[in-house]
């Protein structure tokens, strides 16, 4: 049997930013788990890593992608969290298990400075192992690690959204889609802001109660306030970032909570974004293993499925990257082996 392939980030020497090379089956050491990959998926972070604009530079030649699922085929000495034959995913940060995130946690990331999932095999630290819900397909289970967990953390920490509260999602990428699903799971009303009539229709199908098309309604903060009787929303999940922070503040109720999602290049200067608003703004980066496991229990209880836009075969991984960058996907872009 020929050796499996692994894709490596190589933007300086390869026109597609990826190079495929044969991969020898790794041997797990103490505390390590070897997984044969079944599926993996892309996030915005993977484009930033390829472009060199992610806050944590990619190790040259690293195998990309933080999100994936596969079957355990070997374990190293001392491993207790997984056995051969288990279907598993991995955490985004290699060693953030619970509690507050520390700077040291952010410096160890799969697909950035530890080899990720775009390969035949991935070698995980035992602390990284998570068992996804059984009812999800491999393609669906490969969508959870980044966008799913960060949306879950945004709506459950430091306190969970309450039934009857209103959540505003800004953007229509995968984080926003998960946020719509999780907010509805918690009994909240969901208002979403997007950029086209087609996306508005699909957001309603995912679960948004109201959708504002910013191309038709440029003053969308006022439209959101009108939908809330002038009060504004209690929670904002802003997956766009600094370009929309001022509008998110303007759409917020007194003492609202705004969560800015993830890593983004700070290319848009923002001056006095609060404009008198009294809000708590935080910026979070995915979540811990404990967050991941809590999300999986909720997914299984409510039988929620991730939104998938398109699935590519492993041999077309470069096409998956191009489509994710230029194709305006609605939902996750997945690569299957």
Automatic annotation (TrEMBL):
Kindly list the GO molecular function terms attached to this UniProt entry: oxidoreductase activity
Q: Which residues form the signal peptide?
A: none
All copies of the Enoyl reductase (ER) domain together span 13-335
Here the segments flagged for biased composition (Low complexity) are 21-30
UniProt KW RNA-binding keyword: no
Q: Gene3D superfamilies per the record?
A: Medium-chain alcohol dehydrogenases, catalytic domain (3.90.180.10), NAD(P)-binding Rossmann-like Domain (3.40.50.720)
Q: Which controlled-vocabulary keywords does the entry list?
A: Oxidoreductase
Region annotation (Disordered) ranges: 1-30
Question: The organism sits in which domain of life?
Answer: Bacteria
EC number(s) in its UniProt entry? 1.1.1.-
Q: Name one Pfam family in it.
A: ADH_zinc_N
Keyword match ATP-binding: no
Name the InterPro entries on file: ADH-like_C, ADH-like_N, ER, GroES-like_sf, NAD(P)-bd_dom_sf, Zinc_ADH-like
State the PANTHER family in the record.
Answer: PTHR45033, ZINC-TYPE ALCOHOL DEHYDROGENASE-LIKE PROTEIN C1773.06C
Q: What is this protein called?
A: NAD(P)-dependent alcohol dehydrogenase
Q: Which organism is it from?
A: Streptacidiphilus alkalitolerans
């Amino acid at each position: 049997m020929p050796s499996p392939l692994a894709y490596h980030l190589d933007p300086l020497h390869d026109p597609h930013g990826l190079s495929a090379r044969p991969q020898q089956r790794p041997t797990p050491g103490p505390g390590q788990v070897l997984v044969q990959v079944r599926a993996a998926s892309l996030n915005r972070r993977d484009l930033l890593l390829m472009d060199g604009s992610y806050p944590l530079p990619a190790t040259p030649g690293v195998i990309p992608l933080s999100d994936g699922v596969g079957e355990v085929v070997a374990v190293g000495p001392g491993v207790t969290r997984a056995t051969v034959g288990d279907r598993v995913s991995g955490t985004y940060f290699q060693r953030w298990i619970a509690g507050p995130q520390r700077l040291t946690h952010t410096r160890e990331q799969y697909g950035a400075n530890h080899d990720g999932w775009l390969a035949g095999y991935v070698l995980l630290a035992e602390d990284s192992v998570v068992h996804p819900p059984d009812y999800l397909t491999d393609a669906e289970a490969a969508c959870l690690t980044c966008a799913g967990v960060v949306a879950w953390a945004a709506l459950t920490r430091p306190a969970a959204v309450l039934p009857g509260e209103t959540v505003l999602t800004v953007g229509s990428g995968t984080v926003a889609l998960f946020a719509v699903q999780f907010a509805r799971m918690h009994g909240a009303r969901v208002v979403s802001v997007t950029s086209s009539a087609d996306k508005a229709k699909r957001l309603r199908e995912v679960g948004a109660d109201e959708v504002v098309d910013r191309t038709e309604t440029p003053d969308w903060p006022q439209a959101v306030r009108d939908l809330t009787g002038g009060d504004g929303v209690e929670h904002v999940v802003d997956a766009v970032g600094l370009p929309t922070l001022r509008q998110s503040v303007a759409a917020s109720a007194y003492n609202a909570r705004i969560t800015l999602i993830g890593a983004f290049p700070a290319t848009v200067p923002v001056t006095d974004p609060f404009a008198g608003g009294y809000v708590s703004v935080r910026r979070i980066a995915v979540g811990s293993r404990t967050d991941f496991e809590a999300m999986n229990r909720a997914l299984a209880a409510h039988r929620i499925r991730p939104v998938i836009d398109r699935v590519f075969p492993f041999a077309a991984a470069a096409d998956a990257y191009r489509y994710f960058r230029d194709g305006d996907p609605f939902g996750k872009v997945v690569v299957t082996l």
